[in-house]
Amino acid sequence: xxxxxxxxxxxxxxxxxxxxxxxxxxxxxxxxxxxxxxxxxxxxxxxxxxxxxxxxxxxxxxxxxxxxxxxxxxxxxxxxxxxxxxxxxxxxxxxxxxxxxxxxxxxxxxxxxxxxxxxxxxxxxxxxxxxxxxxxxxxxxxxxxxxxxxxxxxxxxxxxxxxxxxxxxxxxxxxxxxxxxxxxxxxxxxxxxxxxxxxxxxxxxxxxxxxxxxxxxxxxxxxxxxxxxxxxxxxxxxxxxxxxxxxxxxxxxxxxxxxxxxxxxxxxxxxxxxxxxxxxxxxxxxxxxxxxxxxxxxxxxxxxxxxxxxxxxxxxxxxxxxxxxxxxxxxxxxxxxxxxxxxxxxxxxxxxxxxxxxxxxxxxxxxxxxxxxxxxxxxxxxxxxxxxxxxxxxxxxxxxxxxxxxxxxxxxxxxxxxxxxxxxxxxxxxxxxxxxxxxxxxxxxxxxxxxxxxxxxxxxxxxxxxxxxxxxxxxxxxxxxxxxxxxxxxxxxxxxxxxxxxxxxxxxxxxxxxxxxxxxxxxxxxxxxxxxxxxxxxxxxxxxxxxxxxxxxxxxxxxxxxxxxxxxxxxxxxxxxxxxxxxxxxxxxx
Length: 590
Fold this sequence. Notes:
Layout: H1 19-29, H2 33-67, H3 70-119, H4 122-126, H5 130-137, H6 139-172, H7 174-221, H8 223-228, H9 232-257, H10 260-284, H11 294-336, E1 357-364, E2 373-380, E3 385-389, H12 396-403, E4 411-416, E5 419-420, H13 426-432, E6 433-436, E7 445-446, H14 447-451, H15 460-469, H16 473-476, E8 486-487, H17 496-510, E9 514-518, H18 526-539, E10 544-548, H19 552-555, E11 560-565, E12 568-573, H20 575-581, H21 584-589
Parallel strand pairs: 3-10, 3-11, 6-9, 9-10
Antiparallel strand pairs: 1-2, 1-4, 4-5, 7-8, 11-12
Helix pairs in contact: 2-3, 2-6, 2-11, 3-6, 3-11, 5-6, 5-7, 6-7, 6-11, 7-9, 7-10, 7-11, 10-11, 15-17
């Protein structure tokens, strides 16, 4: 397992534009290719309306104004109005359709990354703060949605506009066209250089923002501990330091970015003055007097604006492109993260489980070179109850994590009814092996929905029977709306014992063949535990059970108690047998 990245460590983010990421994105655009093709057609006509308006202005100034032909004037003005209105309509349709396309693409990417997160091994989540995972599914995806909805279209429009304007300018007057191009190119070079300076700044800002997000999520999740430990002021100062780094980085970006406007205005002004200079010089020359007219100059001033704007915008889009590439790299990094724990080809269903479990020469470690268990052997009969005790970090929970394939072992085999758990589907394995964690998780929704979480097709009556069996109905019916009571996020309003009772009800309804209780009664008061103990006696009867607990009352009736230490089983026997030995287990209980 790699070293965990934390909120004060910057992620390793690439800063180069990787066109492979965009090629890969094409696979997401293909389902919307008809919309994209129609948008391209609209884009061509929209660009054409823009470049035709200066031609009309040129005609009005050069011809209509001299002939004073009102019919032609009205016709030309009407044409200009029509072209302007058409361009507005086409632009509206383009933006609407590209918005649909862009968000459709992002919806599919968001679906794929969320689906993949459900399949990833716990190792992936162990190595990253929750906030840095969340930011990939939220902020990065939102930036991509904005890019595909707006910037892709703008980029294509600007390219088409540049090509069309160049064609119209050089077909109208080559000297003036050269003046426009001559001043536009250095202007774009300056903008590109500014964008190049900004690119690494934006990358650093994104890293700092990711760190801030990670700290915020961690703080929200640990809110009660923060208050109890009087850490509010300290954490506020930490956030202030992280935010200050974000703010200072943003200020650097603003300072450099503000140079963009004067740079563009300087070259725009120089270009316009040069247009007038060339025009007046040409008008004064007998050889060129008929080549450049007032209408031509006005048209070229319009063309200069139409030409230079796309050039500068494309330069800025290149900067956006670099950021989006980085976002894509981070998103695809998550989507491409290998699913190390998955179904083998032709994996079978685990059915009719009796509950015989065997660990044969199992070796496992969360980090390479550091084993938690080595050559671990354990053979459990069907219906047997096994309790695991021992010091913290000895590997008690690890044994259970391996049985459910939350983590895969490095060596050895684990079998259920003599079937290797790697040869069966994960769905069937986890259907037959039920796990009750130390910290029960309650989802937002009704009590009934929470009970039914592991068995969506269960009837209301089946859910209620499970609640009665575990004595959970006593607290459920205290609510005015009973089973239909709406629970808040993380079960706010329920006591720790009530949450645990709810999770017990959920596992009873699921009715697995093998039950794992991982400190599942640690959050329950003594009175509640007595109720659960009564129900557990019936629940584990005839089922193979693994219990990790510190309470003597929870484990003393187990068929066998295993003391896990030094990467293996140090002691084994019933409660009475181990107490007589006066060894490690004895010292743990006295």
